[in-house]
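Feature request, filed as a ticket because there's no other form

It would be nice if the structure record came with a short human-readable summary line next to the tokens. Right now we just get the raw output. Example of a typical job, pasted below so the devs can see what we mean:
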Amino acid sequence: MPSLNGATPVNGSTKFLDYHTAVEALNEYQSRDGLSIEDLVDTKQRGGLTYNDFLVLPGYIGFPASEVVLDSPITKRITLKTPFVSSPMDTVTEHEMAIHMALQGGLGVIHHNCSPDAQADMVRKVKRYENGFIVDPVVISQETTVEEAKALKEKWGFGGFPVTESGKLGSKLLGIVTNRDLQFEDDLSQPVAKVMVTDLVTAQLGVTLPEANKILAKSRKGKLPIVDKDFNLVSMISRSDLTKNLHFPLASKLPDSKQLICAAAIGTRPEDKIRLQKLVDAGLDIVVLDSSQGNSMYQIEMVKWIKQEYPGLDVIGGNVVTREQAANLIAAGVDGLRIGMGSGSACITQEVMAVGRPQAAAVYSVSAFAAKFGVPCIADGGVQNVGHIVKGLALGASTVMMGGLLAGTTESPGTSFVSREGKLVKAYRGMGSIDAMQDKKAGAGSKNSQASNAGTARYFSEGDSVLVAQGVSGAVAHRGSISKFVPYLAAGLKHSMQDCGMRSLKELHESAANGTLRFEVRTASAQLEGGVNMESYEKKLYA
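Raw output as currently delivered:
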């Protein structure tokens, strides 16, 4: 190629290779550019790394971001469409968060800093939110009053109750009471028999779910009762569930019942066995044993007991940060592990107790070991942005658990208020904070509420005369609804994986293991360079 204004040396040379051979020239190098995952997290050479200490190097983009698949296991038997999990903290996850996380393809873990009955009620609300065949509908009798029917609607969050002769499933169907029947009724004492709908469209026992859905769609009714040959109510399907299927195609659901997958946390005390029974009766799918240090005789015994008593229930153990911790729980029979100790935004365990591990080092060490036994791992803590999610997954985690990042959303149970700076924020606290450990809701009015508290149980402080805080209380910025925030996180994750040249999380993990995925350590100057360097700016995360 002729020079236009004189040939200039490149790196001191004017003799160049044929540019057609550029790809083949890579074979001259002993290894790919950057570091392998083993070299990156070599703690003897580099110490313990956090998510901010490294970057993932880009690969080749040969596909659109929309083709990236985010399916990933949360336990040995259950897979999520989106690898996001909300933390079991009392300012993060109750039934509203659990429902909306599941609708977006993730999972919400309901906290246990409340009474067993209150937690079981939250599990029921999640399980009843979406169904295929509703095999245990709320059934009322014709003597039930309008006032009682309205109270049931308030309790369960939905209306449309079938009316049978006995007020129970398996009895002759008489009618259905809908929201429209109750909405403008002033006489609250009259029986529902006077306001219920008796012009019913039904389907016979034995109908398939697709067939029933077609009948319901054509009927323009809100509910389709399924009856036997004697017109006894057997089950039911709901139009609202059809709508949810259309609007939330990624929803985390069980294949048979079509109900949302529900997870909840418990401690490892003897009374938690009674709590677990109530949660299982409410329909629980996954139990998370909530402890700051999971490698204990209490948790190991609890894991073994649960696997024996409830073989159909998946158990996630933790928290752990070393292979040795993980090995004991894996041997006990856990179906998943939760990784992290002291890395959460509201956690001060590493500072106060001098025990823990930097999160990147912990995630790699534990997940690489657990993978040998087919045990999926959750990277719990230290996640402040999409980039941290990517790094946690690249290091081997199957899913990522978030507390502070989700505490500011509309669906979290925290209180919203305006800060001194005039910004809308929501209350957020660590479960090791004094506020959380002194909360009396878990005691349900008992004399020793400290012994029943989830915070004290998590940090083995039930019997302490002086509580030592391992968390703080504060506030986080309001982030809007989960329905917008989680899709933003998923879109960011897909674009990041596209930059890495990875079409799925499975490929991401395989490429890290075989050395194809490469990394680079960031110096303090590199971290400064990678941030915003402007005098003033406005940071909008999504639109």
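Something like this underneath would help us a lot:
The first helix runs from residue 37 to 40.
The chain has 21 helices and 21 strands.
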